[in-house]
Amino acid sequence: MSAPSLTTTKADSPHPPPPREAGPVPAGGRFAKSLRRNLTAHGFLVGAVLCFGFFSWYPMVREFLLAFQRTENGRTTWVGLDNLRTVVNDPAFWQAWSNTALFTVLALGLGFAVPFLVAIVINEFHHGQGYLRLLVYLPVMLPPVASVLLFKYLYDPGYGLLNELFTSIGLPAQQWLQDPDISMLAVVIASTWMNMGGATLIYLAALQSIPGELYEAAELDGAGLLRKIWHVTVPQTRLILSLMALMQVIATMQVFVEPFLLTGGAGPEGSTTTVVYLIYQYAFNFNNYGAAAALGLLLLVLLAGFSAVYVRLSRAEDE
User: Fold this and answer.
1) Which residues contact 10 (CB under 8 A, 6 or more apart)?
2) In what helix (H) or strand (E) does residue 72 lie, and over which residues does it extend?
3) Alpha carbon distance 264, 281 (integer Å)
4) pLDDT tens-digit readout, 204-236
5) Three-class SS of residue 94?
6) How many angstroms from the chain centroid is the CA of residue 50?
7) CB 188 within 8 A of CB 103
8) DSSP string, 135-147
9) What's the pTM?
10) Spatial distance between the Cα atoms of 103 and 115, rounded to a whole number of angstroms
11) Distance CA 35, CA 33 (A)
12) Which residues of 278-300 are buried (b: 16+ CB within 10 A; e: fewer)?
């Protein structure tokens, strides 16, 4: 009988040696491995980027080029700043900007404040919030043409419901869309009703994220409804309010559908002529695509500058 061997093989060893560390994987190999692993996701991403580039970035680049070009008899030539001079020297240029600024100010007073107040009211209801949200969002789901026809009926100087209401309480009837002094206000009211649903739901979601303990503490301190809104609701939703204010300004500066459908675009004595409607006139009525692109470029620069300043001030305030 042979004596047991004092040596053991690597397979029989109770503590096998640790595996050797692999060398560093080349960066190209890591990228290829990641690409193969996410090939499907990258495929969907490429499609989205191509669609975004074709429908968003290409028109922007094309507009920038058209702003410095003129096309006559099928020939395109570079004209420098001539299109910009044509736009600035147009008598309707400054009127369009002043009307757009007026619409923006009125829309901030109504279209920004009214959805926030409506959201506060809906948030106070403990039952039936789903039906109220649907009721508020319903105008957004209507086609703009249907909403405009509704308001044209309301604004009609002969049989409109608004004038019927005014005369029933002893107020004089108004020429809502025919009077240059109030036509822009009429457009703002219609626009607020047509577009307030989305903003209301966003505000309502922000309100429902506020801890209830803050309102309870305010009530213990003797705060009433207005003080609770000012000292609790507004500070807790400040980020959403600032973001919605920025989006409101950008959207209202590009208003076109409401004045175009309600007053035909220009309105009485040009009182509802906006910048985007003037762009529409240059492009489709005057066939001057260079001037239309130049005016659109001015609007783009203005909104980009406003957004940059707004974001910079917001960051400075947070710091």
Assistant:
1) 16, 17
2) strand 69-72
3) 12
4) 999 888 888 888 888 888 888 788 888 888 888
5) helix
6) 23
7) yes
8) HHHHHHHS-HHHH
9) 0.78
10) 17
11) 5
12) bbebbbeeeebbbbbbbbbbbbe
Nearest one of 34, 38, 43, 202 to 133, comparing CA atoms: 202
* Nearest C-alpha neighbor of 252 from the set 85, 65, 104, 58: 104
pLDDT in tens, 59-77: 888 888 988 988 777 777 8
d(CA 215, CA 199): 23
Mean pLDDT of the chain: 83
* Residue ranges in 54-182 assigned as alpha helix (H): 58-66, 82-88, 91-107, 113-124, 129-141, 144-155, 161-168
Q: How far apart are the first and last CA of the chain?
A: 86
3 state SS of 134: helix
Instruction: Give the pair of three-digit tokens for residue 211.
Output: 């801890």
Per DSSP, the residues of 209-220 read TS-HHHHHHHHH
List, for residues 65-118, the tens digit of each pLDDT value: 988 988 777 777 888 888 899 999 988 899 999 999 999 999 888 888 889 999
